[in-house]
Amino acid sequence: MFSQLRTRLLLSTIITVGIVLVTLAFIFFFQLRFVEHVTNIGYVRGAAITARELSLYTQYNAHNTNAYALGHREHRAEFDVHAAAFMANLAQIERDIASGVLDEDEQEQIDLLRATRVEFDRSAQALFVAVDTNLATPSAANQAAVEAAWQETDRLADQLDGESQELTSRINDDFTRMRGQMESLSQQIAATELAIAVVLVAMLLAVQGMASQAVGAPLQALLAGVHSFAAGNLGTRITVKRGDEIGRLGGAFNRMATHLQQQRQVLETQNRELQQSLQTQQQLFSTVQQLSVPLLPIGNGVVVLPIVGHVDTARAETILHTLLQGVAQQRAFCVILDVTGIALMNADVLRLLIQMLEATELLGAKVLLAGMNGTMAQSIVAQDVPVNRLRTYRDLGSAIEAARSLQSLRNGTAIAR
Q1: Are 15 and 132 in contact (CB under 8 A)?
Q2: Hey, how many other C-beta atoms are within 10 angstroms of the C-beta on 395?
Q3: Is 221 strand, coil or helix?
Q4: Which of 296, 300, 295 is nearest to 408 (CA)?
Q5: Domain of 394: which CATH number?
Q6: Do 127 and 260 fall within a single domain?
Q7: pLDDT of residue 1
Q8: How does DSSP assign 294-347, residue by residue?
């Protein structure tokens, strides 16, 4: 009887330890995959931030070219700095693709960005030469060359910005997909832990059924520890005072519990770091939104606000806040809104223009609308906007001339008084 019981206990112990080792191997395998996913997600998140900076540096370069065309020659050196930063970020993303962090399909978008960047740099250099030539020998032909180069540079800047945002969108899609895989893997780990608890409980119940009263008490203690562990108390450990099979089983359980507790702590730490990184990304996005709305003073009491790209609700609030704050701080009497670079003249953009017009007039400044084209005019008419309140001009140069006329008229009125 003793030999049969011992045989059963030994067999049950071997089976139990085997299950524990196999499940620990599965857990270790899942943990390695999880850590790999977390690491890759961190790299992809960094690549997304790097790609988003491409759009930021493009907007900086567009601002530099516009400022240089308006006579701010100090922006020439800033253009080179931002262009170098753009190419450095582009090279970093290519390294991420080569290392396997990003999908090789992104290389096609990288090649498109690089080609557009070359065209943009060539157009910008042509604009700088045209501006310098016009300053040295002013003429109608030279001014026309400046305006043509300016328009081409703005077009390529918009195209480059759009391609940068497309790359960012693709990388963010990869980030979302990988985060979903990580969550699925986490659920698999939780299911594995639950399966371990269930299998261990079943095996211990079988051992208890085969054991005599002499082994019942330690088995009850081990069972209570398993239940406590399955309930979520990962600090549960079993006091092992025996050197037989039951003692070894308790030791294997303790090692498993310690390993799982350490892995859980690692997961919690990585989750906190991921949340902090997401907050940093959101703060960076907010900063980019604020820097994408430059207010440029071009004369005493005259400012230019170029609106470039897509305008959503959040950006519309930023633009309106920047305009009103700048008008108040610079005591501007005339505001030129350059809408040449707006991607789509929809109802939200028209609502923003009306709000800017009304709010600016309340501050005592006049609003001139530059860069209006046929498509925009049709949109304004279709939305039933009161056009008699809008002072529109075909391009920024015409609006600047009108602003200077208003400035001369204003100065003459002040002298007469």
Answers
A1: no
A2: 16
A3: helix
A4: 300
A5: 3.30.750.24
A6: yes
A7: 35
A8: --EEEETTEEEEE--B---HHHHHHHHHHHHHHHHHHT-SEEEEE-TTBS---H
CA gap 150, 417 in Å, rounded: 40
pLDDT one-digit tens code per residue, 9-59: 667 678 777 777 777 776 777 677 667 767 778 878 888 898 899 889 999
**In this structure, what token pair is assigned to residue 325?**
């704050």
For residues 409 and 354, give the distance between their C-alpha atoms in angstroms, rounded to a whole number.
25
Same domain, 84 and 121: yes
Place of tokens 């800047």: 157
- Is 222 in contact with 246 (CB distance < 8 Å)? yes
Number of structural domains in the chain = 2
Q: 82 with 228, same domain?
A: yes
Using CB atoms within 10 Å of the CB of residue 303, give its burial: 0 to 12 exposed, 13 to 18 middle, 19+ buried. buried
Instruction: Identify any residues that bridge with 338 across adjacent strands, giving them in sequence order.
Output: 306, 370
Token pair 């391609």 in the structure block, residue: 163
Query: 106 near 167, Cβ under 8 Å?
Result: yes
Mean of per-residue pLDDT scores for the chain: 80
Residues 6 or more apart in contact with residue 314 via CB below 8 angstroms: 289
Calpha distance 18→390 (Å, rounded): 81
Q: Among residues 65, 240, 73, 58, which one has the least CA distance to residue 159?
A: 58
Tell me the backbone φ, ψ of residue 100, rounded to 5 degrees.
90, 0
The Cα–Cα gap between 317 and 321 comes to: 6
- Scan for tokens 């305006």, then name that residue: 147
Q: Are residues 329 and 409 in the same domain?
A: yes
What is the helix (H) or strand (E) element at residue 54, kind and residue range? helix 2-69
Residue 374 shares a structural domain with residue 315: yes
To the question of pTM greater than 0.70 for the whole model, the response is no
Q: List helix spans (H) across 99-139.
A: 106-136
State the sign of the Cα–Cα–Cα–Cα dihedral 387, 389, 395, 401: positive
Joined tokens for residue 197: 């608890």
Q: Which domain holds residue 30?
A: 1-290
Do 264 and 337 have their domain in common? no
10 Å Cβ neighbour count for 172? 17
CA-based max dimension of the chain: 124
pLDDT digits (tens, 9 = 90+) for 102-133: 777 788 888 898 899 999 999 999 999 999 99
